[in-house]
Amino acid sequence: MIKRATIFATLLAAGFSPWLQAGSLVLGGGAIADLDNDAKPLLQLAYEAEPQDAWWSVQPYGELLVSEHSTSYLGLGLQKAFPLSDHWDWGLGINAGYYHSNDHQLDLGYDVEFRSRLFVDYRLDQQQRVRLEIGHISNAELGDDNPGTEVLLIDWIRAL
């Protein structure tokens, strides 16, 4: 298990190496739960690269989500933000990643999971934003069981 996570983390870092000079650090907290059970606390550490002009301003994005009972998700994906006004943006993102949980309520039935999300950002200044995001983690029917789970996060984002 740890060996697979180490390999995935190495691939994640290698995939982001061209964009690591600029971007933003994302720190968040919230909850993870399926619709039938109580929510569990959730912490997020993420990196979002600068928008890539050659890719229609899409941003590479990597994240680590951690909750109780060894629940974790390490993912790599893309996101796209759309301006609403001078201070507000909305966006969406999708990640693929490795998921593990020792909590039977959060067992998603497979190690490979996808996270889709919608978010709203408020720009505090040129260097900082606050984000509210809601997302869903699912294995897209890759496993025999695909219960999925919901994620709600409030993030603080700081430009590097």
Please supply descriptive tags for the structure shown above.
160 residues; Porin; 8 strands; globular
Structural account:
By secondary structure, the protein is mostly beta strands. It has a single domain, classed as Porin, CATH 2.40.160.20. 9% of the residues lie in helices and 55% in strands. It has one helix at residues 2-16, and strands at 24-33, 40-48, 59-67, 71-83, 88-100, 112-123, 128-138, 149-159. Strands 1-2-3-4-5-6-7-8 form an eight-stranded antiparallel beta barrel. It is globular and about 45 Å long. The mean pLDDT is 88.
CATH fold description: Porin
Main pleated-sheet profile? 8 strands, antiparallel, barrel
- Ends apart, CA distance between termini: 32 Å
Given the C-alpha coordinates, what overall shape results?
globular
What's the order of the H and E elements?
Answer: HEEEEEEEE
Which structural class fits the helix and strand makeup? mainly beta
- Please tally the β strands and state the result: 8
Write a compact overview of the structure shown.
This protein has 160 residues and is mainly β.
Summarize the SSE layout with pairings.
Layout: H1 2-16, E1 24-33, E2 40-48, E3 59-67, E4 71-83, E5 88-100, E6 112-123, E7 128-138, E8 149-159
Antiparallel strand pairs: 1-2, 1-8, 2-3, 3-4, 4-5, 5-6, 6-7, 7-8
